Amino acid sequence: MSKNENIKVTWRGGTDAWECDQMGHMNVQFYGAKFDEAEAVLLARLGLGEGEPHTRAEQIVFRKESRVGAALWIESAVIGVDHAGDALRLRHVMYHSPSAAVAATIDVTIGHLPPAVMRAGEAALVAPAELGAPDLPEPVAALDGVSLARARALGLIETGVSIIKPDELRAGAMFGRRAFIGRLSEAVGHLIASEDTAAEALRARHIGSAALDYRIRWSGPLAASDVVVLRSGASGTVGRTLRFFHWMLNERTGEPVATVEIIAVYFDMKARKAIPVPDIILKLFEGRTVAWPG
Predict the structure, then answer these.
(1) Full residue range of the structural domain in which residue 24 is found
(2) 92, 120, 138 - which closes a domain
(3) Do 104 and 90 share a structural domain?
(4) Domain tally for the chain?
(5) pLDDT score recorded for residue 146
(6) Which of 1, 99, 219, 258 is the most exposed place for a label (fewest CB within 10 A)?
């Protein structure tokens, strides 16, 4: 796609049938898995060997659904340098072949990087506009005031309980995106759980849903065998989109692992076009919305 030698292909592959969910398209966790691979390639090319990089924040924007058999590739580049935090801002762009339509993008800030990697990143720096990124990163979900105690006080719904497995951790003991986003995807079913809004009931009405935007703030590394819980809430609607959020918390300490703001849309599964948030969803959240972040 790009003529800039510092914007390089970091992954090529496709969408397998087993990666698609009941909505008929690739589940968000597999976008995460492919971005994980692309990021590992980029960091390896910058010379990352030993070290414990720490993902601080990221924003994933889903632009075009990927269905069975879709051929995809990712281009990546360094688009920002933060010397004070030993951090690089990276952008990965996933494209469809052969149309070159953008499937998804992710902007991520990674800190705790070794000096040699920081120097290599600065030497390979690309203007954000060359990859369609804003000059400054978008605001992401906050961590201030987030705790298990506050989740209980706000009446946030428990939507996930699980244990961290060793093979789910990336370099720096950070949660792999497939494992993390997979938990978020499953949590939504618990957030909207009712007889009228269960997945089978919505499919019977040809109603599907899709995430458009994830804004994620990470607290720090994890350890295998940590027990994590998800507490979730809805913050309302804007136009045809539903806004909701998840707090992932360490059950033992009550402290945050990550926070996620999500913008989602409902769509007609036959026409594959967005529709207004269904009345049965709106009714479910009457009197239950939480103004976070505020």
Answers:
(1) 1-138
(2) 138
(3) yes
(4) 2
(5) 95
(6) 99
CA angle, residues 257, 263, 266, in degrees to nearest 5:
130
Residues 177, 277, single domain; the answer is yes
Look at the alpha carbons of 265, 105, 131, 112 in this order and tell me if their dihedral is positive or negative: positive
List per-block mean pLDDT (blocks of 10 residues) for the chain, which spans 294 residues: 86 96 90 95 91 88 94 97 93 96 96 94 96 82 89 96 94 88 92 75 82 91 93 92 95 95 91 89 88 82
Please provide residue 233's backbone torsions phi and psi, each rounded to the nearest 5 degrees. -155, 165
Same domain membership, residue 121 and residue 9: yes
Residue in 170, 131, 182 with CA at minimum distance from that of residue 26 = 182
Q: Between vectors from CA 280 to CA 276 and to CA 283, what angle results, nearest 5°?
A: 105
| pTM for the full predicted model | 0.91
Determine the distance from the C-alpha atom of residue 193 to the mean position of all C-alpha atoms in its chain, rounded to a whole number.
22
What contacts 146, CB < 8 A, 6 or more positions away?
A: 247, 249, 256, 259
- Phi, psi dihedral angles at 170 (to 5 degrees): -95, -175
CATH code of the domain containing 156: 3.10.129.10
